[in-house]
Write a structure and sequence with these properties.
globular; 30% strand; single chain
Length: 192
């Protein structure tokens, strides 16, 4: 098992550290050839426009799309979720992999960042169903999901903040910043 982390901008190091802590081999992806031999790819949080422009510049858009088309697992967190969406309501480079409509910076500015406890049944072991502590930083939200997209977690008001379609996973929050590695383990299970 080898999971790549897109390392163009953002908090890729935290994802690498979490994956290594749970025993997964990782590598930083900056060029198309870095995708070779990977079982999955994490697209981290950061600034989605910057990551998108760099992905275009380094010719990564089509190889990442091809990776998804080949059935490999991809996970976008925060900015990564924006990049994986089909519609974000503005013109910017996107992978367009998931049939979701996303609103950028939906909860406000940096000072409006917050934390929440989420009920995520997909993460629950039969004997241990405790909430997931989610950290939202200038976070996007999912306004709508298309056919086949499963909602994994919502805020108390019904706002969708995590979804899955096959081996594609998105979260509007940052699981790599907390001590709970259940989302990383869940992603690795999708990649196997």
């Amino acid at each position: 098992m080898k999971i790549g982390v897109l390392a163009l901008q953002g908090d890729f190091i935290e994802h690498e550290q979490t994956l290594r802590r749970i025993g997964v081999e990782t590598c930083e992806v900056r060029l198309p050839q870095h995708l070779d031999g990977l079982d999955g790819l994490v697209i981290p949080g950061g600034e989605s426009t910057t990551i998108g422009k760099l992905a275009v510049q380094y010719e990564l858009i089509e190889p990442i799309r091809a990776m998804a088309a080949a059935g490999k697992a991809l996970w976008g967190t925060c900015a990564g979720m924006i990049l994986m969406a089909r519609d974000v309501g503005r013109d910017q480079p996107l992978l367009g992999l998931m049939d979701i409509q996303v609103r950028r910076n939906a909860f406000g500015r940096q000072v409006d960042s917050f934390e929440a406890l989420l009920d995520v049944p997909a993460l629950a072991a039969p004997d241990d169903r405790h909430p997931f502590h989610a950290i939202f930083i200038r976070a996007p939200l999912i306004e709508s999901v298309g056919a086949g997209v499963e909602t994994l977690a919502s805020l108390e008001d019904g706002t969708i903040v995590a979804a899955r379609h096959g081996r594609l996973l998105v979260t509007s929050f940052h699981p790599e910043l907390g001590g709970d590695d259940r989302f990383h383990r869940y992603f690795v299970s999708l990649a196997t």
